[in-house]
Amino acid sequence: MPKDLDQPGQEGNDDSREKRTPDPSEETGRGRAGVNIPSPRRGNTPQASPPRFVSVGELMETAKGISNMALAHEMVVNKEFVMKPVELPEGSFERRVKEIMHQAFWDYLESQLNEDPPSYSNAIKMLSDIKEALLSFLMPSHDRLRSSIEEVLDLPLIQQQAENGALDMGRLAKFIVGTMGSLCAPCRDGEIRKLHDATELVPLLKAIVNALDLMKMDMVNFTLTTLKPHLMQQSAEYERQKFTEFLEKQPNALDFTEKWLRDAAEDLREDGASASAAALSTTSLPPHSVHNHAFLRLLKWDHSSDTFPETLILDQARFVDMQQEAERLVLLSSLLLIVYTTTGDAISGLPGLMDKLKTTLSAIIMDMHTPSFILEETLASIGEKLCVELSQCLSEHGHGPYSPERQDILKGQILATARPDNTVRKVMESRIQSYMLASLESTQHQTPPPLPGGLAPVGKELSELTVRFSRLVNFNKLVFSPFYQKLLQSALMPAEHPHCDV
Q: Which pTM value belongs to this model?
């Protein structure tokens, strides 16, 4: 686990300032850390701040802060986050050097132990490191085990035994393995059994060291899991602090966030896209409604042409995943609705049919966002497959044959969903977006909004997606609320008045 998420970088020489604007393509982590990056402006929006030159040292320090902020953010928002040992690429020069150096150490240790009399200098240093690792795993209540480790791995006594030729490394190794077995996580029992079966001393010591490294990582991850509920507020404050420091060095670093909020406000004014805002005048849009609508727009974001808001850049990949999942649910619910409206009462209420069709269609469209996926061809194939499935189902339940005319209607309506302006697809998309917006605007004490019509077959998946979306949105609001308040005030000013600089 990192000892300190906020260690300052090396300061640059204040006298050696850059005389040019650095390349805007320079980025650190997933944050935008370039200097003097121009941003798109709308209408009468003035330039936010004059250009400012930044030293290389300041850039390095800022980049380090952004990287640390990204790590802290990942720990909190990623339920699957775990620390893993660094794995150098297979066949890389660094990996080869590491393997050679490690092998040289173990070869040298073996040669020392094979001397007559054996030399234990490096072995004792290793025992010291192993003892320290074992003690680090102990809880305050492990008094007896602590005393046992201190007694058996008594380094001064071991040194005396080595000098007198009475040191039994095999006995110490067996004690270490037994202690590791009582301290390791259940997932490491297999490694410990292998250690018990080892007979050669040096390979055993090597395996002990490797197993201890894994146990250290297990302990770090256990600690992270235990502390995660308490990290939320601290992480929010830490991220806000690091972003504030970044903003001091890059005053125009909220330009795209401002544009994102301003566009959302204009959407509500011009299109009445939110039911809650439809009845409001153009000057009385609630800031929270504009903000929620802005987050909902991220699920229809054009990542190829529009720059993502700076405050959300650490989560862009997560929003992309949720956007793709929402699009799959739109298509899946559209296809299922078409099946039931075109086939009629004959299949209504048939046990297991809906789940069977849903599983089949979900598997077919799972890769709909991959480059090799061709939507029209896939929908044509789906139409043929559904006709076969429905014909067989109707026959099994004593209904008349699935006529060619009805099959053609089903195939045509399924193929029509390839068009973005398809009526069924637009209706299902609107209902999914309305449900997610209603969930976002409801408080944690209220019951979830009811599912709109036609979404019951995908209700479980939609609910899970909405929970993920809401949690990410709420944490982002928690972190950046001071910045959002100012930007929303600016975005909601009447269009005829120039907005104040933020």
A: 0.62
430 pLDDT higher than 90: yes
Name the more confident of 61 and 72.
72
Query: Cα separations (Å) of 278 from 27, 115, 167, 268, 283?
Result: 40, 88, 84, 8, 12
Pick 389 or 21 by higher pLDDT.
389
- Is pLDDT at 475 greater than 50 in this prediction? yes
| Integer CA distances (angstroms), 211 to 55, 184, 217, 282, in order | 45, 9, 10, 65
Please give the radius of gyration of the chain, using alpha carbons only, rounded to the nearest integer.
Answer: 31
Q: DSSP letter string over 157-191?
A: HHHHHHHTT---HHHHHHHHHHHHHHHS-GGGHHH
Q: Indicate the SS3 state at residue 310.
A: helix
Identify whether the C-beta of residue 344 lies closer than 8 Å to the C-beta of residue 376: no
Peptide bond into 482 cis (omega under 30): no
**Residue of 326, 303, 330, 327 lying closest to 315 (CA atoms):** 303
CB 148 within 8 A of CB 241: no
In angstroms, rounded to a whole number, what is the distance separating the alpha carbons of residues 397 and 416? 29
Residue 195's nearest CA partner among 86, 104, 182, 122 is 182
> How would you classify residue 198: left for phi > 0, otherwise alpha for psi between -120 and 50, otherwise beta?
beta
Residue 451, classed as helix, strand or coil, is: coil
- Comparing CA positions, the residue from 407, 66, 367, 113 lying closest to residue 246 is 66
pLDDT higher than 60, residue 464: yes
Secondary structure of residue 31 in the 3-state scheme: strand
Closest residue by Cα to residue 463 from 373, 329, 358: 329
Cβ atoms < 10 Å from Cβ of 105: 13
Tell me how far apart the alpha carbons of residues 68 and 64 are, in angstroms, rounded to a whole number. 6
Q: Locate 21 and state its tokens.
A: 């604007």
CA 381 from chain centre, in angstroms, equals 34
The pLDDT score that the predictor gives to residue 233 is: 65
Supply φ then ψ for residue 83, to 5 degrees. -80, 135
How many angstroms separate the CA atoms of 134 and 146, rounded?
Answer: 9
pLDDT in tens, 254-313: 999 999 999 999 888 876 544 444 444 445 788 988 999 999 999 999 998 999 999 998
Residues 6+ apart with CB under 8 A from 59: 12, 22, 26, 33, 35, 249
